[in-house]
Amino acid sequence: MRRITFAAAGVALALTLAACSGGGAGGGSGSTGTASAGGNDGKGTLVGVAMPTQTSERWIADGNAVKKGLEDAGYKVDLEYGNDDIPTQQQQIDQMITKGAGLLIVASIDGTALANQLQAAADKKIPVIAYDRLIRDSNNVDFYVTFDNYKVGVQQATSLLTGLGLVKADGSKGDKTGPFNVELFAGSLDDNNAHFFWQGAMDTLKPYMDSGAIVVPSGQVTIEKAAILRWQQETAQQRMENLLTSTYSSGKKVDGVLSPYDGLSRGIITALQNDPSNKYGSSVPMPIVTGQDAEIASVKLINDGVQYSTIFKDTRKLAEQAVVASKAFLGGQTPEPNDTKSYDNGKKVVPSFLLQSDIVDKDKIKPLLIDSGYWTADEVAAGKAS
Hints:
By secondary structure, this protein is an alpha/beta fold. Helices cover 42% and strands 13% of the residues. It has helices spanning 2-21, 57-72, 86-98, 115-123, 149-164, 192-211, 223-226, 233-247, 262-273, 296-303, 315-330, 365-370, 377-382, and strands at 27-28, 46-51, 76-81, 103-106, 128-131, 143-147, 180-184, 214-215, 256-258, 288-289, 310-312, 334-335, 352-355, 358-360. This is Sugar ABC transporter substrate-binding protein.
């Protein structure tokens, strides 16, 4: 609750600053045609917020921060979690529309499975904001708030290269030359972000793969082979176990693993630690394992020298932009994007507001996570939120 309150305060501040300066995704000229149930600013309007799952602390924090920010701005909120089940999320959005929602904020489970719901929203002139995950194959997506997901992939690959010693922290050439044995993991294929993460990472790693500094002994170098459905930790652990059995049963050792999410990273690390050959563990340095989302369990692993890095996407800022964009729509305006080229959903280029992310290794935990109030030192030490 402490972090949710902090995030809500940040949302309120962002709304104030946006109103004063026009920064962020604040309203531009032009009307959306949306009826404002509570007046010109839409105060009192019901906003439906559909989040994908409660199995990740990240999505719980997102949902609560968006809800609190909207309520503080004067809107009613229906927050639902789909529990990674597509029909459940479809039904939840249908119900939001039936209840009279004037705006929908959707972090989709499957970015291609909501065409009927979005058409129903469009028929009632209900704007739709895609939240962090792009909704595909529909003209009825009005705005997108997310991070620069290609850059996130670049950062993940860069942190892997840095951990291996091929690149220095300042971006210059590292002292190591390889070759290093690396295995690649990707997110769920039905999540558009997974493809951006993968492309950014592979574009960054390709020169090192071409030169032989990085090799992938399993030969699994396509996103289809590397993908983990629904981003499940257990599935990642099983795939890593299979790789160890099929490819590393002799004297060969894993030097690094590209992992696009902390939950996957923890599954990968568990598989490595449980490897019957005892190649990895307390007496031997762990492979360089990347991650994303700065989940507290993984931050502790980074602090303890087990996981190498994560990518910090400050979801407080993402929630802020969702609220700012909502305020614009419900006030009869159009939010101002900062990107109108990158996110083609198969039907249209969706106007987007992109936020920046940061690489967090052990040295960056305090300045980026603790000093910003995202986690406390005690939470990092314990590996769980207070």
